[in-house]
Amino acid sequence: xxxxxxxxxxxxxxxxxxxxxxxxxxxxxxxxxxxxxxxxxxxxxxxxxxxxxxxxxxxxxxxxxxxxxxxxxxxxxxxxxxxxxxxxxxxxxxxxxxxxxxxxxxxxxxxxxxxxxxxxxxxxxxxxxxxxxxxxxxxxxxxxxxxxxxxxxxxxxxxxxxxxxxxxxxxxxxxxxxxxxxxxxxxxxxxxxxxxxxxxxxxxxxxxxxxxxxxxxxxxxxxxxxxxxxxxxxxxxxxxxxxxxxxxxxxxxxxxxxxxxxxxxxxxxxxxxxxxxxxxxxxxxxxxxxxxxxxxx
Length: 297
Description:
Rossmann fold; eight-stranded mixed sheet; single chain
């Protein structure tokens, strides 16, 4: 499973969260939509690019609600996976641990059986949500948002699978631009991006292409990125800041954080709950900063 790691498919489901958004059809896709309190003018629009568990995962919807409330933004969480996101039950299968009272061979058989049940769902996700399918769908949605909301700042927040897209959407290439108000096709799809523990990212290639403001959150040695890749990634983005003599991009490293911590962390683990909350704060600050730049409010 090149481009993915075990932790891309594990974590904790927050089944007890109280959500405030609604489901609507937005630009042709089923979408979880949430916004600031009634009577509050949105400062911008955030499009959430989810992890492998897609647009229905309660964790990701809860994050969308938090962004809407704290940034004062309209937030869209679309079904970019066309119904092929991993079901929540695969998390239990990946993390299943047989009872310690079972003898060794029986435990091994039970563990292998749990993994075998998950493999078809993983293979279906990897095939149906490959980049050549998902990337055009995301760009088309963002282009429609730009056309429908021409004067609105637009940001993306991506996690794991979506974290990759958040990175490449900051590249200065024709595919990441659209026509707005008849002014040609040179307008960027996004004004800024936040990417947490991205999968599939090629370092340094995908990072060298970053142009639009990018904020990244990652562990120092997570299952996918690894310590050396993280050092190189940080070096590339800091070098871009030095070239422009400004803090255009940022990388926040969370020592010991597991891949997936920003939205599938075990909130019973004090360290990972802290990192989950801090990464949310990081994203909120980033969007506030870039949505307020040039604002008339």
